[in-house]
Structure formats: C-alpha cells, structure tokens
Amino acid sequence: MKRSRPLNRIANSYGKWGVSLGAQVLVLSALAMVGSPLHAQDIKHHALSLVGAPQYGPDYKHFDWVNASAPKGGILHQWAQGTFDSLNPFTAKGVPTMAAGLMYDSLMDSSPDEPSVEYCLICEWVSYPEDFSSVTFKLRKRARFHDGQPITPEDVIYSMQAQKKAHPQYKFYYKNVVSAEKTGEREVTFTFNVKGNRELPQIVGQLSILPKHYWEGVGTKGQKRDLSKTTLEVPVGSGPYRVKAMEPGRYITYERVPDYWAKDLPVRIGQWNFDEIKYDYFRDRVPAFEAFKSGDLDVWQETSSKAWATQYNIPAVKKGWIKKEAIPHERVAPMQAFVFNLRKKKFQDIRVRQAFGLAFNFERANKTLFYDQYTRVNSFFGNSELQSKGLPSGRELEILEGLKDLIPAEVFTKEWKNPTAPTQLAHRKNLRKAVMLLKEAGWHTKGGVLRNKDNETFDVEFLLVSPDFERVVLPYTEELKRIGIKARVRLVDTSQYKRRTDNFEYDIIVGTFGQSHSPGNEQRDYWGSRAADAAGSRNLAGIKNKAIDKLIDMIVFAKSREELVEATRALDRVLLWNFYVVPQWHYPFTRLAFWDKFGRPKKVPSQTPALLQTWWYSKEKAVALQKARGK
Which residues constitute the domain of residue 455? Predict the structure, then answer.
C-alpha cells in the first residue's frame, strides 16, 4: 500500500469500533450463523484498515493527535530544492511544485498515527463485497471544489480514468480497476478484474478527486486543458489550500481556504492551521540554510548527519530561539541505496552487482562522514515484521520452494547480510573478493583498469541531483577505481535529473523505496516487469524477474495478514539476493529545527511529526521571539 490513509449499520452488534478488512470475514461468518441476511456489500464503513482495527469508531469527534482548538493564522515559511515548471502533479511531464497535494482532497484520508488506516473524507461511507471484486463510495453532500461546484460521481469517474491515462504510476497502481460507474445518488462503484485483492478498496480511497468541468474546459489562453500536460495555470482543487502567488523556480505560496468544505469534519478538525504555507526555491542547501539561520525560513528538516552534529552551534540555538529536536517515528525503514540500471548490459551479471556492494565501505563512511548516527539498511522492509531474517521457514519457505528454479540458491542456505569492514584489513579482503567476482564475470584487470573480452573498459557514472551527496559518492568512486572501475560523478539540476530518471538515462542513481506496513499494488511499480520499460515508473533498476512478479501477485492477493507478511518476507529475500542495489543507511528519527513561534499537539503521530498538518502559529511565542531578537 502506497499510503497509510459510511457509517456501519451493524456496529452496535459487536461494539462501536470498526474492524479491519481481514477481521470482517469473521464478523460476517458469525452473522451468517445466526441467520442474518446482511452481506459484505451491505456494510457501510466509516474507515478501512489493513493492519488491525481502526482506532476510532464511526462516532469519533476528532483524532487524539490534534489540538481540536488549534488557532488558525500565521505563515509557515519553508524551502524546496531546485525548481518547478508545473502546477499539475498528475502527469509524468515536467517538475511539479512542492506540496501540490495541499490543493486536492481524496475519497478517504490516511492517518499519520495508524499505519494502513484510512477514514472517509469526500466519501460518507464505503462498502465492498466479500470477494473484494468492487468498492462503492457514497459522496458527502457538502463536498465542494474551490469554485463552489459540488463533487459528483462524474468527477470521481473522470479522476480515475484521467489519472491512469496521464501517469504510468497510476496506471500500474490502479491496474485492476477496470470500470467506474454511477450507481446511485452521489454513489460511485469501481469494478475490479480480479477477486481477493484486499487492498484495492483502500487504495481506490486514496484517489485524488479532480473537477471534470475544469479539466475538460478551456484554459485562460484558449487552449483545451489536458491532465497529461504541464501547466502553470492555477487549477481548481478541493483541499485545504489553494495557490495564492508564485514565480516558477523562485517561490510558491499556498493560502488556506477559509470556507474549506471539510474544515468541521472529524477527519479534519484541528488540522491545516496555517493561513499561508510558502516555499522558497534554492539551488542547493547552503544558501537555504543561511536563510533559515537568519530567520527568513521558519523550519528546517535536517537530512545531513554532519550538519546536525556540527552546524547548529549558533547563537539562536544557544539562546533557545531555535529549537532542535530528533523526533522518533515508527515508519518502515525505507531502502535507500545506490540503484543499478539493469537496462545497461554491464550490470546484468549478478556478480558485478555483488562486487559493487563489497567495494562500499559503510563503516568508514558512518564514522568519518556521519558521526556514527546511521544504521545500515539490511532489508527492503526494515524496522517491521515484514523484514526477512535468518533462513526461510514455514510458509515463507513453502513460497520460496515453489520458485526454486527462478531464484538464487543462496536464498535457502545463507542469511543475507551486508558486507562489513570494521577494519581496513577487512575492507581489503572485501575488495579482493570483488575483483574475483568481476573476473568470474569476464572482467580482467589490465594496467589497473578492468576490461572485458572486447577490450571495453568498465566505465560507470553516478548521477546526482544533490551536491550534499558528492561527499558520500566521491570516496566510493575512489574505492571502485582501486579495483579497476572507471567511476565518475555527474551533478545535474532538478529538471535534467527528472528527465533523465524518468527515461532511465543513467548508470547508477541514489534511490529511496518507501514502504508502508501493508505493501501491495505499488510493488508492481517498484519491481514489476511491466513497469521496467514504462517511462516515469518507479522500477528504477529495470527489474524483469518472473519470480518477483509471482511474489508481487502473492502479496497483492494475500487473503490474510499472515499470508501477506510471509509473502513480503519472501520478496524481501529474493530482492536482496539479486543484489539490485547497494544498501545505504537509515535513521529512525525526524530531525527538525524550528524558530520557536509554533504550537503543536501533545501527542506526536507514530509515523511523522505532521508539522504541516497539526502544528499552528503561536502569536504569543512569535511576539516574544521578536522582542528577544530586538525586532
């Protein structure tokens, strides 16, 4: 599941709380035993969950991770790197603005405190049959776009069709959604071409709803609007914010919609409190951080361990004007890694990819560059029960044995582990192993340079968009040169980077594969064979592997949480043993520094600090800060 995001007729028969998708089967069975005529499609849910039961029942007033009385007002001033040339986030073309999602509401909304849980937003209720072959949403009568037009079933149907057509990610994500039709007053039913995909009702709930009348209309310059194209015309949305002002490549300001249609709903109370949210664009981190230190930016999310350890010894921090916190979270650790482009012949031999892993000295980088703050990533689903450990057993072993002829033999005999180099001697041993693997793959050292039978040298380019990453990659390229690989770094701007990555024009890039606690249809876009050649997909490595395709289907069509976990562990193990990436590191905290003029709820959601969503501008603190600074 890509994102963790109507009233139940039989809620009182088993308590006021909703139930998870898996648990509902047990409820239905019990009802059948006492002769109840209800079927799954008759049950109207206010929330859906793929992991346990939703925390809040249909009569909830607001979430406990918000301040229901949070004041509205003030400006939150942040930064973004690079540039933008489009206000349309639903196409693969162009570079969209930061936080474009602020403008759009979806059928359901994810909870930052409950992994894989969604509550009705635009929808009043949601229902589906026992075989998960369709899903029906009843739209709220009050739901409106910013121009005052009601959100209709026609808008919902258009949104699904247009987004699948405009962007390959939606095409793969909603692959099994084959039709959408109006089935009642303010009701829409989506029909699937498969049964048993437990996740489909929930991911359809993630659909951002667009105004059909706007996108099928004519633009300010007389042109017919097209969702598959870039545009700088301010679009009509339905979310808590709309664009107030912008200058492409310099800044964009969103303003809170004062008569936002959902502001008094329990799913929205206490949220989206800033009157304005502004992003200034900078080419790189250095001038942006100077702007933050001077007070021109309000908040800074730090991604550099070195900066966190060394660059905050400034008067504003010492005086308490800037607060500095590392806030823990419980998210699945993302696989951040050097990603090979298997579309290139030189990376197709698994031994070559393994050699690159042996040449990366994480321990030295962590000590000399990261102040020992990071933990090595050792799974595509780390920090969760989905991670593979030890040797496969039980149901996971059964799954893998069914794919025995399609996966590396080591899957069954060895626990996958990153190579380690606690000493320089250990690193030299790793480099020797790398040279031997490269030799087995047909690459031999001549004059200190690797060459194949056609006398071609092994050249590799690391494509980067962030200057901060050069200090990490440059030492790595030196290690690669030691084993005969001619490695170099190319730093490009945001627009060029997006174009090249969308079209897979690179050797190696730094990729991050975020995961939820309930993986599903998005795995097709990450690793599925059909996504490998689809421009703009997230299959950055270009993986085409029959075993992985089969494992993805097992995850998507898992009939229970237990089955999902075992299939995901199997997928994790097969991905690791194919050495598609060189894992990097993760940090189980969000590093935030901010000028002390904000309030926030007492409870921090488990998955994120939810700064944009739940914090607020404190006029009292802001005045005190101004006085302290003499301004």
Answer: 335-586
* pLDDT tens, residue by residue, 421-451: 999 999 999 999 999 999 999 999 999 999 9
Selection from 356, 340, 392, 627 nearest residue 511 by Cα: 340
Q: Tokens 């995001």 — which residue?
A: 5
Same domain flag for 108 and 124: yes
CATH number at residue 543: 3.10.105.10
| Number of folded domains that form the chain | 3
Per-residue 3-state assignment (H helix, E strand, C coil) for 381-404: CECCCCCCCCCCCHHHHHHHHCCH
pTM of the model: 0.78
The 3-state secondary structure of 587-630 reads CCEEEEEEECCEECCCCCCCCCCCHHHHCEECHHHHHHHHHHHC
Query: CB-based contacts of 2: which residues, under 8 Å, 6+ apart?
Result: 173, 203, 206, 516, 520, 521, 522
* Residue 197 belongs to domain with CATH number: 3.40.190.10
Residue bearing tokens 């080419």: 283
Q: Looking at the structure, do residues 504 and 376 belong to the same domain, yes or no? A: yes
C-alpha separations of 122 from 207, 267, 293, 324 in Å: 10, 10, 40, 37
Tokens for 218, please give them: 């004519």
Report if residue 4 sits inside a domain.
Answer: no
- Token pair 């739940």 in the structure block, residue: 614
The string of pLDDT tens digits covering residues 233-254 is 999 999 999 999 999 989 999 9
Closest by CA to 495, choosing from 201, 30, 83, is: 83
Task: Please provide residue 556's backbone torsions phi and psi, each rounded to the nearest 5 degrees.
Answer: -60, -40
Chain position carrying tokens 């008759």: 42
How big is the CA angle at 389 (ends 383 and 390), to the nearest 5 degrees?
155
Q: Where a domain ends, among 215, 233, 264?
A: 215
